[in-house]
Amino acid sequence: MPHPFKLSRIARRKGLSGLGWVLAAVSFVLVAAPLLDILYTVIRKGLSALSFTLFTHVTNGISGGLLNAITGTLALVFGALVFAAPVGILAGIYLSEFGRGRFGRSVRFLDDVLAGVPSIVLGYFSYVTLVIGMGWQFSVLAGSLTLAIMVVPYIARFTEISFLQVPNSLREAGYALGFRELTVITRIALPLALPGIMTGVLFAIAIALGETAPLIYTAGWSNFLWNGKLIHEPIGYLTYVIWSFINQPYRSAHALAFAAAFLVIVMVLLVNIGLSIILRRTRPMGPGQQR
Amino acid sequence: MTLRPFRIILVLVTSLIPLALIAVLVFLARYSWPALTFNGWHFLVGHTWSLGNLYANPVKQRGVLVPIGANYGILVFIVGTLLTSAIALVIAIPVSLGVAIFLAEGLRSRLRIPLSFVVEMLAAVPSVVYGLWGYAVLTPLVAHTLGPGLRAVLGFVPFFAGPIGSGYGLLAASIVLALMVVPIIAATVRDALARVPAETKEAAYALGATHFEVVRRAMLPAVRTNIIGACILGLGRALGETMAVLMVSGGALNYFPGNIYSPITTMASFIVSQLDSAMQDPTGMAVRSLAEIALILFIISVITNIIARLLTGTSRNASPV
């Protein structure tokens, strides 16, 4: 009687396959649920802590506003971009246009390795070299440089990929017209690669906005508005408020921590939405070519 | 040969990236050198971290000035780091594979993009926000629901039995780490699955396989090295994660975890939590010993990343993130 046996074997395989899909869907729910809960918790508690004074007053002990932290975060992220964007973009251009040799290959590899170095290690490196070694103390410059080292690999990588997506025929057309290398790269390839470079920069902003550990070692913390000095002057930032104030046993401190988390999450979300808009718009040009 | 100033500038700027890596290694090693000579191998196998008597005159030991009774051993933190990362991977790997399969094959394309955004957001949430959530939501959950539940089911294993405590500890830290590792593994595996040639799938279908059997028997084996590489990449992330672990781990000092609910400390989070007290040490040996921890973390992360990149190929093949 082979028949029922055969049928049940097929039924079993179908059943197992169904089970497999269910498990896959369940694991998606297992990660989606915490994410939604994180967003829900931060938004609910953050919104209830939100007030006008947050944006007009500086932190006063464990209460007050977040003006110093908001401006500090913006200053640190901007500072990081000032260093990281030129280096990352130029490195990305080099890797895509000239990086086929041994040097290019090893830089590409080390770029990936640098991206994987824990942020606290980079923070401690800056603490040892800049904060202590150079005597800068906790400062904007030390914090920005540390963030810059962290995000440079991403900007380089995004830039390289977006330059690689520019069709070679366009470059050849430029050379055929007698353009020089510099002209071909800046006038022909760069405009086409710009959206990709932008995504890299946005990605870097998102990372820098949320970073904490290396800043504790390099930027310190300050209750006051930044006075514009690049060194010898610590600066406040939002992620410090989250980490430090949640450990205080006061309601006002917790409210500030959640408000800071809310602001960070909103900024990161906005950057990510911007990212996906750019990515989606440039997709039609992308995936087929040299990815 | 013509001189090309543009290329020279590009090469000079580009070499800043490898230079940064070398500088991290050199300066951390140089700064922690006195600590390396003072601590020796004891650093890795000792399990007491004590700054010594900071108020007495420091004494000269093994050629360097240290506070009396100073002892730097980080075995407890090494164990904490390895245990949290290992448990996080045990949770994250099956879940990530499920997520990757679900996103790559289980959805029609209209749903794929919005649901993929969940994984991207998971990667975008800053680590300190994970820590905040862990503090506010996860640790009470571990103390009152997850912990007792786990003990009721697996309590016959000593590691899962015993006091649950406040919720801060190994289990909470591992869950948070797992959440942070999942997007790395899931995104890498999803992209790899999407690149499996149609011929491979069609061949499996032609043999009569169901859709899931195609995924399980034909596609997953085809991306095996990518999966291993992605897991090592995730491991690298978990080993070096700082803030989230710091906020939910309970900060154990000088004792080993008794069970999965015990407070622990990892190497990375220890560096942050100890800065203030280390700076009190007039000889600077505590700060140098922290630098030694950073150096070890650096070397570990470089090794794991090299292995991961060799297995997955360079990231240029996949999506940039």
CATH-scheme architecture of chain B: Orthogonal Bundle
| Element pattern of chain A in H and E | HHEEHHHHHHHHH
Q: What class, by secondary structure content of chain B? A: mainly alpha
Globally, the shape of chain A reads globular
The overall average pLDDT of chain B, rounded, is 87
The residue-averaged pLDDT of chain A reads 88
Distance between the termini of chain B: 39 Å
Q: What's the CATH class label of chain B?
A: Mainly Alpha
Number of helices of chain A: 11
Task: Tell me which protein chains meet in the greatest interface and how many residues each side has.
Answer: A-B, 95 and 92 residues
Residue fraction in strands of chain B: under 5%
The CATH topology assignment of chain B is MetI-like fold
Give helix % range of chain B: 55-70%
Looking at CATH, the homologous superfamily of chain B is: MetI-like
The total number of structural domains of chain B is 1
Number of strands of chain A: 2
Percent of residues in helices of chain A comes to over 70%
Main-sheet strand order of chain A equals: 1-2
Strand order of the largest sheet of chain B: 1-4
What does the largest sheet of chain B look like?
2 strands, antiparallel
Describe this structure in words.
Chain A contains eleven helices and two strands. Chain A has 291 residues and is mainly α. Chain A has a single domain, classed as MetI-like (MetI-like fold), CATH 1.10.3720. A two-stranded antiparallel sheet of chain A has the order 1-2. In chain A, a hairpin with a 2-residue loop joins strand 1 (59-60) and strand 2 (63-64). In chain A, helix 3 (67-98) runs parallel beside helix 6 (140-164), helix 5 packs across helix 6 and helix 6 (140-164) packs across helix 8. In chain A, 49% of the residues are buried. Chain B is mainly alpha-helical and 321 residues long. Chain B contains 13 helices and four strands. Chain B has helices spanning 5-14, 16-39, 42-45, 75-105, 109-124, 127-154, 170-194, 198-206, 211-222, 224-240, 243-248, 267-278, 285-312, and strands at residues 49-50, 59-61, 64-66, 71-72. Chain B has a two-stranded antiparallel ribbon with strand order 1-4. In chain B, helix 5 (109-124) runs antiparallel to helix 7. The interface between A and B is large, with 95 and 92 residues.
